[in-house]
Amino acid sequence: RRINLGPCNKLYKKNKITALFREGLSLGEDTLFVLEYLKNVERISVLSECLYNVVLDNENSLNKKKPDNVLDLLIEQRKEEEAFLLDCYGKNCDLTPLYNCYLLNTHAYFLNMAQNKQHIQDALSKHIKNEFLQEKIKRAAPRRLDLKLFQTIFSKKYAHAVNAYFHVKALYYSLGGILK
After folding, report:
1. Contacts for 169-172 with beta carbons within 8 Å, 24 or more apart?
2. Rounded distance, CA 101 to CA 78, Å?
3. Is it the case that residue 180 has pLDDT exceeding 60?
4. Closest Cα to residue 62, out of 34, 112, 35, 27?
């Protein structure tokens, strides 16, 4: 996670590319490409200078479109990252940063739904029962108090509390975060 897993800020050796972008994916295909590439190299070099700029003004770009199953796609991407890390570093590697990603992705997904005034109960009912996701979120080590609260109520499967949490949080942000 200290390397941006996007493909556009890197140089590649063509003979090391063994897999192209996965067709049909609308989220995470770039990360999976980079992980596949990293399996074929023994070392990488990192520059501290920022030599890449991006303009995100193309309304037709995939990064502007959010599929309905965005959390499912993120979970699948994280599964592949975990397999990559276990393959590279063995079963004793610290996966806490990855567990934190599961927590943050899930939190962001539901917060975005609440902020856009979408009904989150159906999606929440589905994901709160997902034992795989539950295990990963329980293993996260959030530092922020709000994320610790979310982790606790999500892990205890308190769907109504999670729903209320996100609606209160969305209201707080809609007021500009000015509540004291």
Report:
1. 169/111, 169/114, 170/111, 170/114, 170/115, 170/117
2. 8
3. no
4. 27
